[in-house]
Design goal:
alpha/beta, Rossmann fold, seven-stranded mixed sheet, globular
Length: 264
């Protein structure tokens, strides 16, 4: 399912933002988080939505259907990480959007989805990818099995170098740091990455930098910590919009964040 919003001033050739929802499979709400930015900047918003009925559990969304019920890696053409690119390509072919104008943002489970998408299938048609407040990460290593690492997926050193040299943007709310936060992944591999989402994001970025040094390749990831924001999809959407379309993080009041606000 696609949830979309077209601002009154949007026309093909302007920017398009794809949005990946969190574990609540609430693509309609994530689309709405981007409506203020769409109206300010003349954007089209496209939120691919994977229902829990059809894609039950994290293994069938966050983990992209990369493994089957027995834990075996499935054929790459069946991974749902390919879906956003297929949608973007179809919209280009239909002349709804122009080539090279699409960006994609994901929060929480959507952040898990996006960094794994980039790890395994690349940026595709997207000019920018921002993964925010992911619960845990597939570390850039070929030694640890997926989803804690990339081993067993067919990824090789060339794929790893492309990942590290890509402009992947990792975002984390400075207040999204609670070890007992709701819906925080708690399997041993996740806990080993840090007590909270902020710590795990820092760990992921540091692991990428270290791996780039070990491989002798470039490291082009960007890492942004957003002050005053916890696990808040609306506020992190506003932060990403500010960076992308205004060149800066918005002021705290514009983020609309509060310590009790949670959007999964």
């Amino acid at each position: 399912m696609l949830h979309t919003y077209r601002s009154a001033s949007y026309e093909p050739g302007k920017d398009v933002v794809f949005v990946q929802h969190g574990m609540l499979r609430n693509g309609d709400e994530y689309r709405d988080f981007w409506v203020p930015a769409a109206d300010r900047h003349g954007l089209l918003i496209v939120a691919p939505t994977f229902s829990n009925e059809a894609f039950n559990g994290p293994e069938n969304y966050n983990d992209g259907m990369v493994r089957d019920d027995q834990g075996q890696v499935t054929p790459p053409e069946t991974w749902i990480y390919r879906v956003p690119a297929l949608v973007a390509t179809a919209l280009v072919d239909a002349r709804v959007i122009a080539p090279g104008r699409a960006r994609i943002f994901g929060h929480s489970a959507g952040g898990q989805f996006l960094h794994r998408m980039v790890s395994l299938v690349g940026f595709g048609p997207f000019a920018a990818v921002a993964a925010a407040n992911a619960g845990w990460y597939s570390l850039p290593t070929l030694e640890t099995p997926f989803p804690a690492g990339l081993a067993g997926t067919g990824a090789d050193k060339a794929r790893l170098k492309r990942l590290l040299e890509s402009p992947l943007h990792v975002m984390a709310g400075l207040m999204d740091c609670e070890a007992a936060a709701d819906n925080l992944p708690s399997q041993p591999e996740a806990v080993a990455q840090g007590p909270g989402r902020l710590h795990r994001a820092r760990n992921y970025h540091a692991a990428g930098k270290a791996m780039a040094g070990a491989l002798g390749c470039g490291f082009n990831w960007r890492f942004t910590e957003v002050p005053g924001v916890a696990h808040d999809g609306r506020a992190m959407s506003a932060a990403a919009a500010g960076i992308w379309f205004e060149g800066r993080l918005p002021e705290a009041a514009a983020l609309g964040a509060g310590p009790e606000t949670v959007n999964a």
